[in-house]
Amino acid sequence: VRPAAWTLLVLLIASVAAADDFTFDISRYEKKPYEFGGYIQASAEYLRLNRDSVLYQSAYPDGSSKSDDRYRGVLELSGLYRHDIFSLNGLLNAWIMEDVSGYGDDVRFYELFAAAQLSDALKIEVGKRVLRWGKGYAFNPAAFLERPKNPIDPDLSREGYVMALAEYVRTLEGRLQTVSISVMAVPVGSGMNEDFGDKNHLNTAARLYLLYRDTDIDVMVRSGGSRPAAAGLDMARNLMPNFAIHGELAWFENRTISIPDSQDTFSKPFLRKADDLDVLFGLRYLTASETTWIIEYYRNGAGYSPREMKAFFAWMRSSTDSAPDMGSEPVSSTEPLGEPDVGQDTSGRLIFETSGILSGPQLMRDYLHVRVARKEPFDVLYWNAGFTAIINLQDNSASLVPEVIYTGITNLELRARLPLLAGGTNTEYGERRNRWRAEFRGRYYF
Amino acid sequence: MENTGRQTVFRMCRSLLMNAVSHRAWFLAPGHFIWVMMIAVMINLAAPAPAVFAEDPLSSDSSETFSMDADALLAEVDRNLQPASYEMYRKLINIEPDGRQKSFVLYTVRQGADKMAAVFLDPPSEKGRSTLRLGDNMWLYIPAVGKPIRITSLQAVVGGVFNNADIMRLDFSVEYAAEFADEEPEHYILDLKARGPAVAYDRLKMRVDRKTRLPVMIEAYAASGMLIKTLRYSEIRDFGNGIVRPARLETDSPLQKGYRSVMLFSGLQPREFSGEVFTLSYLPRIGELR
């Protein structure tokens, strides 16, 4: 027995020693001319439908379905080729989907651009490019050259626009620590950025960034043309190490939206001048227990009033007319389908957008976004729990999304969500297609 | 040892008085305040200069340590760990109680006292995730989000016992004020107090090797006095360019029993960068500096 015990002890010590024999070869991580990466994702959803809602009646005219299933697959590939100061960058997105309405798929480049880094301070880029402007987490009214993001899933990939961009950055000593200025041109014509707005315009924009007294400040402008001229301002600052505030202002020149006529129909669409100003302010707070709170208020100047919203739903219930004319800030989403509770029809597109009536996923004017995320609750590594609420402050309807994420297996992210929609008749979230939805998503990175 | 005992008495008296003053105990009896302050002045005059060892009987060269300043020693520890401006690679390995491991590789650049940036190179799920630090300001860039967002040094970038404060730490002497706390035959014991609220740990207890002037072990405490984590340096290695320092840092935490994390250092070398590298514009391209 004794030799066996000694052997076991030696093996145990050897295994412990071997476990601590970590190696680190950095030659694997040296810069190479080519880089590839991406992820493959599969998700399954079960939707419990709201048979009394407007969007249900639109998507299921026969009224027979109580629930729906949806299955999606997404492949996203990113690639980079470097040569001297030049690089070629690409992001390819492909998705397939199957649900009650059938099968759908799409493949397209979200980004494909050439870049020249002329110095640490100056770069030039030409091609299809995704920009991310603004300091908001769920909403970005000052994101003038982007497709709108889904506030329930703001990190979803979005398609960029073809543009030319130049950026110059300079660091300084003193209260003004950084200055950068970027200018860009976005052409709109046949076959190029057609969904940005009116054709045959060269839209220009510029952004000035300052880091002044530990505060991030952006000033951005967009010329008129395909869309109304716009100007914006955003700021972010840490008031305490664990407490930051941020805000955005966006002003639009002569922005219009379609509203129902006096008979609550869009048969003779009427363009109303929208408020010029969008406002967002918010905060981010990290507690001692690593719980992050993000709270934002968003005033959507191009949103409907409750009366207009009610008329809109009345028209949706009764109308079989073709879509009315578009407002002046049209948007088209080519995301891989987004969330159905944003207001999708069965083809997966945002129904209010495809009807061309409103400028984005937000239909009305006043919203509150609250997100609470706890990293590693109960000190269990690699588990994250979160809860997101988007509350329409005008009609008191809400989208509530609890979620858990597990990242304990290298390169694999597992996410489960249970979005619930709360609201009565003629409310934004009460008239969505489903009452609740269960979603399971697996994403493998390579 | 007699001198050490005297030091301890001085430190205790000074600490008691300063606590009394800081908690406004004098406010209850203003007359006593004058006496307290007089005693405090006398003790401070009689005592050795703050944060200086009066005598080091264990050292072969007691005159050297007699004049040694704790902050100066801490600055020396910093310079021995890395140059003021450098690039380096690090590998983080999280080890779970059941032995499962998860690794991350970071490329880090630093310029001067308060500019630092790091990007994850591996695994693919974290690749491109970059962090920029300018003094107390910190931003995180996640490729999927596409823009930098402000974060705090208290926040964990990845799972594990290491957090931002460990990964994006500036020099100890920038973040902490030092005092000698105790001594051992082979080590100096430094008591480090955070210079500001943005520093993740309120207090560190650092054991420094007398010969190499390199840290051996660090205990990190919260303001409440609770031990948050213990960090242990090991595997002294010659990185070239005169840099001889530990190549391994291991940490565990009583808050995460059974879990531990290891950080391996490699490719550390002096390098100068332009200020424009440490901007939000450049942050998505930090990896291009390799």
What does this molecule look like?
Helices cover 9% and strands 48% of the residues of chain A. Chain A has an 18-stranded antiparallel beta barrel. In chain A, strands 12-13 form a two-stranded antiparallel sheet. In chain A, strand 4 and strand 5 form a beta hairpin. The two termini of chain A are 49 Å apart. About 9% of the residues of chain A have low confidence. Chain B is α+β, with helices and mostly antiparallel strands. Chain B is built from six helices and 13 strands. A 13-stranded antiparallel sheet of chain B has the order 6-5-4-3-2-1-13-12-11-10-9-8-7. At the A-B interface, strand 6, strand 7 and strand 10 of A face strand 1, strand 2 and strand 13 of B.
Can you summarize this structure?
Chain A is 9% helix and 48% strand. Chain A contains 4 helices and 21 strands. The longest helix of chain A is centred in the N-terminal third of the chain and has 18 residues, at 2-19.
Mean pLDDT of chain A: 84
Q: What is the overall number of helices of chain A?
A: 4
Span between N and C termini of chain A? 49 Å
Helix content of chain B: 10-25%
**CA-based shape of chain B:** globular
Number of helices of chain B: 6
Beta fraction of chain B: 35-45%
Number of strands of chain A: 21
Average of pLDDT of chain B: 79
Q: Largest sheet of chain A, if any? A: 18 strands, antiparallel, barrel
Sketch the major β-sheet of chain B.
13 strands, antiparallel
| Percent range for β-strand residues of chain A | over 45%
Order of SSEs of chain B: HHHHEEEEEEHHEEEEEEE
Taking Cα atoms only, what radius of gyration of chain A do you get, to the nearest Å? 25 Å
Count of DSSP E strands of chain B?
A: 13
Q: What Rg of chain B do the Cα atoms give?
A: 21 Å
- What structural category characterises the helix and strand content of chain B? alpha+beta
Distance linking N and C termini of chain B:
52 Å
